[in-house]
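Board notes (copied after class):
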Amino acid sequence: MKILCTMPEMKDYFDEIGLSSYDICYKKETELKDEELLQYEVAIGILHKETSKKMTNLRLYQLAMAGSDFIRREDFNENCKIANASGTFGIAISEYMIGGLIALMRNFSYYHDNQKKHLWKRIPSVSTICSSTILVVGLGDIGHNFAKKASAMGAVVYGIRRHPDDKPSYIQECGDFGMLDEYLKLADIVALCLPRNKETDNIMNAQRLRSMKRGSYLINVGRGNCLDYDALFECLSDNIAGALLDVFKEEPLKADSPLYDCQNVIITPHASGNLDLPITKREFAKIVKYNLQHLDDGKLMNVVDLETGYRMYNKKTNNV
């Protein structure tokens, strides 16, 4: 079985986990020639549709990212399974969320500006994760990791997911999307960890943003389609105390966006996850190894339903 990996930087991690016996060709997509594409049965990484359409013998396309909203079924042969990398980024992104949230609640951006001005000035208005009520919308790998960390820090955590009956012990209460409006009224912090699909499109609209508690905080690390950013900008001077934003409807975020000038907003360029950390690379390697071992018996993990953007539901995998 011939395997293509478009991320040469993963070779050491694959070898470390015991994949050196597999016939893996490490090439960037730009180095591939059309005549070699038919030989691969597995592709690992990220492919453009012009490449994937020519790989007609693919049995598995293992994405190196959690999101699959850019993939079209027609760009692959009908027998090719598509699996994402969910389970890889929860540690990195949840730590990003905790760090960014603390920075907002303890006014770090103001202090950083004052530091540059050589200004010694205390800002007494602060908040804390401990004893706050947090609503996590989307309890996949990222949402679960964040909820667990926040609960350990003393927060009361509520969750929204498609399958609310599967509730971990560190979540106070879990409901489906029909409970969103009720839970929003309780939340001091709202964390959006959702994929892009029709169900999540503009789910945090102007009405819901205005219904959030005065002095509350908003985090978005899922996909930009779920949030009305114009309405958020208006609410930042009203009921929402701050926002941590890593994803946007259009990326990169336009240079003239008024969000850039908001002192109570932290903006990052879709940088909360990615395969930057060694621990993230190792988690991804584990998924690759499992799926290569189970390619023949069909017991693959993280197979994506391209209609919904979610993994095929299985209670054991804590899918959204």
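Comment from the instructor: DSSP finds nine helices and twelve strands in the chain. The first strand starts at residue 2 and ends at 5.
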